[in-house]
Structure formats: structure tokens, C-alpha cells
Write a structure and sequence with these properties.
Layout lengths: L5 H16 L8 H35 L1
Helix pairs in contact: 1-2
Amino acid sequence: MEEITYNQAISELETILQTMQSDRCDIDKLSALTRRAADLIKLCRTRLTATDQELQEILASLQNG
């Protein structure tokens, strides 16, 4: 997946969701939209997990420090 920011991924997910909920959602593109949304969700989850781990390490170093 290309390098995009967390905020860009969230924005694209919101756009995909709006498209899927609208009358303009082309059934032929639904699987591609779903696949892209799944990729974006994975990216966001990975970034959130990494940030959480980093924050835990920083807080632990402050307590030990």
C-alpha cells in the first residue's frame, strides 16, 4: 500500500462509506471499494497499534526514570 497518512486513510474511508451508502454506488465497483476499505482499515489499525506501543514505552521510561 502506498504511503499515506492516518488522516488521509480515515478521510478516504469516509468517502468510501458515503459512496457505498449512496444511490450512486456502482455494484460493479463494490468489491473494489470493499477491498480498498479493508486495506485502509488494516493500515489504520497498524498505525494505531504502533503508536500505542510507542506511547506505552515512553510512559514506562518516565516511570523508571
